[in-house]
């Protein structure tokens, strides 16, 4: 196994982001069209939060009891903003951290994605899927 592999070798570099002021519909479109589950939220060029597809599902599920299915998304998205739904106080990692150290963060904190930041700039995102695929590659 490649003990000292840095996450820069396996992270996604072309990160889809949303602005804190973007509508929730935009995030939902990214989740569905790009087949992703986590989006860093940017405000004034800095990461201020993370939005997951599960965050949207949670608010949609809560709304589905009171609104017809065809109108659930519109109703929910009129009631909430990205700022209200996103997770704040995001833990970030640096590109020179090892896969092992990031895997430990995933295991201890139960995160599924972490933004990769260098000099206060978003340079990538690392997910549990990236780490699992890396580990699987070690056995081929």
Automatic annotation (TrEMBL):
The CBS domain, residue ranges: 11-67, 86-140
Gene3D superfamilies in alphabetical order: CBS-domain
Keyword check for Metal-binding: no
Superkingdom of the organism of origin: Bacteria
A Pfam family recorded for this sequence: CBS
NADP is among the record's keywords: no
Stored InterPro entries: CBS_dom (IPR000644), CBS_dom_sf (IPR046342), Diverse_CBS-Domain (IPR051257)
Matching PANTHER family: CBS DOMAIN-CONTAINING PROTEIN, CBS DOMAIN-CONTAINING PROTEIN CBSX3, MITOCHONDRIAL
Protein name: CBS domain-containing protein
């Amino acid at each position: 196994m490649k003990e000292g592999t840095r996450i820069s070798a396996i992270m996604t570099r072309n990160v889809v982001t949303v602005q804190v002021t973007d509508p929730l519909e935009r995030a939902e479109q990214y989740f569905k069209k790009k087949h992703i589950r986590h989006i860093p939220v940017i405000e004034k060029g800095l990461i201020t939060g993370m939005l997951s597809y599960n965050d949207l599902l949670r608010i949609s599920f809560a709304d589905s009891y009171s609104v017809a299915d065809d109108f659930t998304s519109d109703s929910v998205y009129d009631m909430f903003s990205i700022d209200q739904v996103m997770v704040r106080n995001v833990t970030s990692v640096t590109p020179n951290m090892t896969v092992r150290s990031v895997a430990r963060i995933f295991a201890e904190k139960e995160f599924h994605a972490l933004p990769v930041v260098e000099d206060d700039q978003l340079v990538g995102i690392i997910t549990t899927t990236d780490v699992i695929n890396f580990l699987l590659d070690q056995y081929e």
